[in-house]
Amino acid sequence: MAEALKNVIAQSLECPVCLNTFTDPKILSCSHTYCKACLDNILECHGNDQMLRCPVCRAETQVPNRDVSKLSTSLALKSLIEDVKNQYQFCSNCKSEDKPQAVVYCQDCGKYLCYTCHNNHSQWQDFITHEVLAMSEIVSGKVTVRRYRKCRKHPKEDEECFCSDCRRFACFRCVVMEHKDEGHRIIEAAVYERHHLKSTEDLKSKADKKRSCFQKYVDFIDEQKEHVSNVQKQCTDDIDKAFEESVRQLTKRKEILIGEVKGKTDGVEKELDEMKKSAQGHITHLTTVADMVTNRTKVPSDMDALAAHDTLCQDLQEALKQEDPDYKQPIQSSRKGKSVSFKRNVGMNELTLGKIVNAVERNIALPTKNSMNAMVSTPDGRMAVGCWKGGVEIFSADGQHQQTVLKDVLILGVGFLSDDRYVMLDTSNNITLYTLEQTKVNVKFETLSNDEGGYANFTVNSDDQIYVSYRKTKKIHVFSTAGGKAIREIPCDGYEPQQITSYTDYLVIRSHDAIRLIDKQGVVKYKLAKSGHDLDLYAAVSQVNTILIATVNHDVGLVSIDEYTNELKHVQNIDIDYKIEKPVRKWYYMQQYRSGEIALCTTDRLYIFH
């Protein structure tokens, strides 16, 4: 009876969370007691919350400043633990009333043994493999005694059964008396323990995978931070080089410029740090809860311990529901930092060193609103924007409006021949050639009128052949520079050619539903369909003969630009969801400058991207 009482007392001195003897026991407002370290871990799992939820009854306790040490200490329990630790343990095998002091404990026999009994015990062949612990190691806390689970109502009976509905271990007598009614599912305690250990291992495995997922996300954020830091370093190096070539009195200006770079990049790094901190918080949460659930050698036996374990398992299940990280957010944030560059002044303002610019875009208002109809790169590397209200506006790669030509021509399309002559398509579908001096060339082209062919568009290839597409008749006419009738006709079966661009041996056709690459006979070789009814695709040929495609959401004013191979396979994102001013008319054009900048033109504005 005394041995059974000791077992009951020992179980009462165990923390329901870690299942070890209490260390620095703290009392919650609901009167349940836990180790201080266990409460620290539970509180850490709930972020910045100062409310601590009891794992057994779910009641909440306010923890001022998240300092668990300020909670009340169970002095009586602490004293009892010290008394138990300091109490001599007597041999439980000797039959005499004056029992000698134990020197070891046999884990397999479940008995404390004096020197004589231990000596006899070690000589028996069947007991050689038993695990024997020295009392000095038990008292010092280096090892933990494995206790046999005895029924509290029937101390001589082992709790060999487990009721899944009551969440309790029970002996056979308790099962017969208290758990025999319908609704009580009884299984062997050993079966429950195996299932419990298996489910714990599964939770641990899932937690490891989720933790690895977020660790990859953190590593990716570090890479993005490094890219942004490299941009900052490059800008700083460029500024230093320009400064060293200038005079000493520019020190102040130099510091201002570096401060601007830092100001533009520090905000991005802060955003990335916040994302990293959040991801690391998930890792810490998963690690802490998973360790509390899985890093244990004992199975919870009483109701409080089972309730605490169930709560921790539920917390881990909730943590595992966290969605995997979205890489789009750090990409977008880092893009803002990577777009910063230093532009040096050359010429009259050389002594000002230069300025910090956003390399992603330049936003220029067109001279005439709601007028853009076409755009093409000029032979000298600038950009020509044709306007239906009249004229062609010429812009440099840095967005400077440099001149207006052919002011009286109502432009539907614009192009250039290899000898730098202008090719103009007016709003009546007439093609006209002009010299560099803007003198009209006396050549006639027999194109279809608006009534016959519908709206037209055109492009000029490297052989100076002019391709004119018609929406209404869904076909393309090919003209030579000599004029006259079309020398060839290309059908557009099943689609309406809205924009047309020459591309090596192909033509790039933009229609309402897709971008198509067709050969000179009209056979569709490759096709890229748009992914949503709110999106429209606009294509251009890059300086390295890849295909640039702008995906435009006109309703919300968002543009994404991507690069594709000549088979319309995706290569890379150039810009994602760039916000533009929504134009009145749903018509866009895209081209690339010879120097590499990408020009996207709405009917009102010109955007230049790097």
Which terms would index this structure?
Neuraminidase; single chain; 31% helix; 610 residues; 4-stranded antiparallel β-sheet
Summarize this entry quickly.
By secondary structure, this protein is an alpha+beta fold.
Notes on the protein architecture:
The protein is of the alpha+beta class and 610 residues long. It has 11 helices and 36 strands. It has 3 domains: 79 residues, Zinc/RING finger domain, C3HC4 (zinc finger) (Herpes Virus-1, 2-Layer Sandwich), CATH 3.30.40; 155 residues, no CATH class; 249 residues, 6 Propeller (Neuraminidase), CATH 2.120.10. It is elongated, with a radius of gyration of 40 Å. The N and C termini lie far apart (85 Å). The mean pLDDT is 85.
Strand order of the largest sheet: 13-36-35-34
Strand content: 25-35%
Shape: elongated
- Helix content range of the residues, please? 25-40%
Main sheet?
4 strands, antiparallel
- Unreliable stretches, pLDDT < 50, 5 or more residues? none
- What is the CATH architecture term of the largest domain? 6 Propeller
Q: CATH top level of the largest domain?
A: Mainly Beta
Number of domain modules: 3
CATH superfamily of the largest domain: TolB, C-terminal domain
CATH-derived topology of the largest domain = Neuraminidase
In round numbers, the mean pLDDT is: 85
